[in-house]
Write a structure and sequence with these properties.
The complex is a heterodimer. Chain A is an all-beta fold. Chain A is built from no helices and 11 strands. In chain A, the strands form 2 sheets. In chain A, strands 2, 4, 5, 6, 9, 10 and 11 form a 7-stranded mixed sheet that branches. In chain A, a hairpin with a 4-residue loop joins strand 7 and strand 8. Chain B is mainly β. The chains are: A mainly beta, B mainly beta.
Chain lengths: 117, 106
């Protein structure tokens, strides 16, 4: 069965960076787009961007240009998102989601990132 | 950017009641997608291509609409349906979501 296993909770300092992971299993990792979505506390959902692991192509929501960098490791079927220059505004739950016909057919369990000194 | 406006923001319904959530798009979209999210959990795909139920979704749910106006309807509310529902469009980037409708049991 399809599974997206995300890395654990992160507590990071302002101005630093963090890299969170999403390990895929149960399907051909290189053949489906992987999306990333942000959910700030008590707020709705924002699309960050996608990566196509087969060739590494990416597309970002302009809002997250320069903030998020998406990569993928085909050998381990793992997608990554690095967030840089972190501020309190970046404190949120981040989800990966596999596109399969529809953009967000399968979701990871979410990774909580808390930015605090 | 296509803005999706959901209404109502919050709604309370009694078991057996009919519930309708609407989603209006700032520009015409080809299809609408709906997600259910319960507290502390990941969203789940609920309705795709405007009116198709995702796997495991009870048939008391339905979706309809076209252009800039879409809706999700629950024919007879059940306690397990209490959740937040989000609409989402895929017609243009950035992909956008509505702000959510919180459905509570009365």
């Amino acid at each position: 069965q399809v599974q997206l296993q995300q890395s654990g909770t992160e507590l990071v300092k302002p101005a630093s960076s963090v890299k969170i992971s999403c390990k895929a299993s149960g399907y051909t990792f290189t053949s489906n787009y992987m999306h990333w979505i942000r959910q700030q506390p008590g707020n709705g959902l924002e699309w960050i961007g996608w990566i196509y692991p087969g060739n590494g192509n990416t597309k970002y929501n302009q809002k997250f240009d320069g903030k998020a960098t998406l990569t993928a490791d085909k050998s381990s079927s793992t997608a990554y998102m690095q967030l840089s220059s972190l501020t309190s505004e970046d404190s949120a739950v981040y989800f990966c989601a596999r596109q399969w016909g529809t953009p967000f057919a399968y979701w990871g369990q979410g990774t909580l990132v808390t930015v605090s000194s | 950017e296509i803005v999706l406006t959901q209404s109502p923001t919050t709604i309370a319904a009694s078991p057996g009641e009919k519930v309708t959530i609407t989603c209006r798009a700032s520009s015409s979209v080809s299809y609408m997608y709906w997600y259910q999210q319960k507290s502390g959990a990941s969203p789940k795909l609920w309705i795709y291509d405007t009116s198709k139920l995702a796997s495991g979704v009870p048939n008391r749910f339905s979706g309809s609409g076209s252009g800039t106006s879409y809706s999700l309807t629950i024919n007879t509310m059940e306690t397990e349906d209490a959740a937040t529902y989000y609409c989402q469009q895929w017609s243009s980037t950035p992909l956008t979501f509505g702000s959510g409708t919180k459905l509570e049991i009365k």
